[in-house]
Amino acid sequence: MGRGDIPPLRSLPRLFLPGATADGPIDLPKEEVDKFRKVLRLSEGDPIAVLPNDGSLIRCEFRNRQAVPHSVEWPNTEPDLKVTLAQALPKSDRIDTVVRMGTEIGVSAFCFFAGERSVVRWDESKTRDRLRRLEAIARESAEQSFRSVLPTIEFVKDLKAVLGRWPEAIVLSEVEGLNKGLQRERSAVTIVIGPEGGWAPRELTLIGERGVTLGPRVLRTDTAGPAAAAVLLLSNDGA
Asked: What is the pTM of this model?
């Protein structure tokens, strides 16, 4: 195949296989083989991309149940700014939206926690199940949006735990008279988003001077996080 026949990276069907190498044929999970054959209608020899989750991309040919490596490339698709989105638990359909949109925009990590006014509560078993589901959503979104590194997803107890871990976090707040907006001042930033019912008085005390605003309109909890991430990330892509 000549160089002129090589398809662009963005056009390749992609899948994440953390730890994959280009040393030899790569065994593909059955569900990925089924997707390539039945959904994408790929044939033997069609080009695909395997993402090892280290920022690289392995160009391959689809052969039977394997990916046969051809070359390794390093696409520049990950943002320089590392954004962590700390989200108070919203309802289940909204949490899916936060992860899907945030991943596509370029969020590096998600941290979910129970706000005082969160309607949803996760017990230990529900936490494990929910995190697995969200990781699957993030993986699908990362493949679709041509990410080369998967975002991490975790759960912590409450806002106090979030601010203890990221003391320099910025917090979206609806406090009247607040005029401080988002600013990119560091190479990494944590944005904290409250639940549907807003912050409780004790949480506002914890937030202190960390409060910022996106403007005069009130956004839904599943809109606010991706919107804030977009303000910081998309305006700086390619800068």
From this structure: 0.89
